[in-house]
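hey can u check if this looks right to u? its 230 residues, i copy pasted from the old doc so theres a chance i mangled smth
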Amino acid sequence: MKRSKRHAENASKVDREKLYPISEALEILVSAKGAKFDESLDVAINLGVDPRHADQMVRGAMLLPQGLGKDVRVVVFAKGEKEKEAADAGADYCGSDDLIKKIADGWLDFDTVIAAPDVMGQVSKLGKILGPRGLMPNPKLGTVTFDVARAVKEAKAGKIEYKVEKAGIVHASLGKLSFGKEKLLDNIKAFIDEIIKAKPEGAKGTYLKGLSVSSTMGPGIKIELASISA
């Protein structure tokens, strides 16, 4: 695949075999010749787990201290008073049967889905659509709740969900390059702390095996793990 001159120039600033202190890596990404849009900072963490075993699954949700820097489009499945609470809290789309039909017909212009428990029976019909996209409401992640107003506010404020993949890697976007180094570092440290707290009982040996950061259009940079706690 042919790379642009900008991509080649940015990639030339990075030694792919070197482990960089997190502060230096963020400086490289923030100062790189950027795209014509505000790129996201993406993180990949290699964990010493085998998610094929239930006792080694790593999954959860958290609020980023500096937010995501994006407008999160929130869908809420609810009826009556709960639908009104969700709308007042800032949900972009609220409803039940009509909204379920709209999504079943192919509409997917949203980022997060929240549901009140009393409508999950109907929402479960969308499992084959929402599930593969990681959008199915889940009580363990706080997206199936009667406190829909709080869930909406958290989603808008920058709450993210994470789940380890088959290869033992967790991916997450943790903000925009326009945040600057300090705010991005704040989000990264909070995310690493969250992953450590989520360490499953079945994990054996080294848990945090590797970490890399990249921007949407920029090079991947391997990180020296000790530099994050420092």
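Residues 14-67+160-229 form a domain with the Ribulose 1,5 Bisphosphate Carboxylase/Oxygenase fold (CATH 3.30.190.20).
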